[in-house]
Write a structure and sequence with these properties.
Its main location: secreted. Helix content is 44%, strand content 0%. The longest helix is centred in the N-terminal third of the chain and has 25 residues. It is globular.
Length: 75
Amino acid sequence: MAALKSLVSLSSQAALLFLLIALAMQTKTAEAQDCAGLNNLNSCQAFVVPGAANPNSACCNALRGVQPDCIQIKD
């Protein structure tokens, strides 16, 4: 059970890291002024390293606050 919980936690952290990297790479300079809320994602940086705890409410709120136009998902 502990191994499963650890695996889920690790996969959650990996997904969060992927999201942060994708956001950073896809944000264009011209759109930066419209996507100023991405700076709030700094509160998530402590949670994307191995062994980190689950994200706190500040990180979750920062992710919720990102405008949908600031995220580009390509197939």
